[in-house]
Task: inverse folding
């Protein structure tokens, strides 16, 4: 068999003794791996000891050494280790008192793998995570991690969940700006609210998330533009520029065309989150109907049918799958076939529910 110009032997084509030789070598390989794991683990007490004695630089160097040793066998663990170490070595913590009515803080619940994404979007997000995990390497070259991210695209396809996943991967608190509290009808009050939000975020590493971003970053000179909105947009640009790299700003909009062009240029990453393809709908449906969520039942075949419904976003796909699971509990699955065939907008009451 030939792949990319290179001949690769299948098991059937290998010499008769090859399989036996490989099997004979397996115990030796296992021994070497166990020894390597033991050597790696021996670094952990040294790292903890450095933390106890507040030798922060030494702890970071030891952590980098451990990450380097395991990056070939456990690359995800190595990257996570570097991220956590880098954050742990930053002494600053967010103040316990939040700007009243303007920001909510939560602990991230989702990793990146939990979000249904195109390969391109996932790759771009991994680039962001990698830069922050290697911030000390970048500093040696006079660089800082890029930290201003704009997600745009139709509603219901995971922009908020993706922002939360970035916070989880980076090991940072997740700050969500309350849109209703931010906007104020009094002249100049919205700008003052922006001051409070960004001043709070600058106090320590965090992910700051602003949804419905077009509401405060509208294009100047547009038909919707009024004097106050123009002032808010100008103020917002200044605040974005003042953010340190330790604050990851993530904004989301489903009205990218309404954003001010100068605001768009302030972002390091502008990432489109498109409407889902059939493959993405199928991936989401399979995840929502996996056996762990349907104990004693197998609904996996329904994932294909739901993917074929062409529901307009992943939120509707998720909700439809949950309707199937709910029907399984409350109606013994009597309405599942109908639910798996009904398009959005078609509703009906299930007997006994």
Result:
């Amino acid at each position: 068999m030939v792949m990319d110009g290179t001949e690769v032997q299948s098991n059937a084509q290998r010499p008769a003794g090859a399989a036996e030789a490989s099997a004979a070598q397996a115990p030796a390989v296992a021994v070497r791996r166990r020894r390597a794991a033991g050597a790696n683990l021996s670094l952990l007490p040294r790292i903890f000891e450095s933390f106890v004695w507040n030798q922060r630089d030494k702890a970071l160097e030891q952590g980098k050494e451990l990450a380097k040793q395991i990056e070939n066998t456990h690359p995800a663990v190595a990257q996570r280790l570097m991220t956590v170490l880098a954050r742990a070595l930053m002494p600053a913590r967010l103040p316990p008192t939040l700007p009243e009515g303007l920001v909510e803080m939560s602990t991230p619940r989702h990793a990146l793998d939990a979000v249904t994404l195109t390969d391109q979007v996932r790759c771009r997000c991994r680039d962001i995570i990698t830069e922050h995990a290697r911030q000390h390497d970048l500093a040696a070259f006079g660089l800082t991690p890029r930290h201003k991210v704009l997600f745009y695209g139709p509603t219901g396809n995971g922009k908020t969940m993706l922002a939360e996943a970035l916070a989880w991967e980076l090991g940072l608190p997740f700050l969500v700006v309350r849109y209703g509290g931010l906007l104020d009808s009094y002249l100049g009050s919205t700008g003052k609210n922006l001051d409070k939000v960004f001043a709070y975020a600058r106090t320590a590493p965090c992910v700051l998330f602003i949804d419905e971003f077009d509401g405060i970053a509208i294009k100047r000179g547009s038909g919707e533009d009024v004097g106050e909105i123009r002032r808010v947009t100008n103020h917002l640009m200044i605040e974005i520029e003042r953010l340190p790299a330790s604050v990851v700003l993530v904004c989301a909009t489903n009205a990218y065309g309404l954003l001010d062009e100068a605001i768009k240029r302030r972002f390091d990453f502008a990432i489109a989150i498109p409407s889902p393809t059939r493959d993405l709908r199928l991936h989401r449906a399979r995840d929502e109907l996996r056996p762990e969520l349907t104990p004693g039942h197998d609904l996996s075949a329904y994932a294909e049918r739901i993917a074929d419904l062409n529901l307009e976003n992943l939120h509707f796909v998720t909700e439809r799958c949950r309707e199937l699971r709910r029907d399984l509990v409350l109606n013994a699955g009597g309405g599942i076939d109908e639910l798996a065939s009904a398009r959005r907008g078609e509703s009906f009451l299930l007997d006994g529910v």
Q: What stands out?
A: The CA atoms of residues 74 and 192 lie 47 Å apart. The first helix runs from residue 18 to 41.
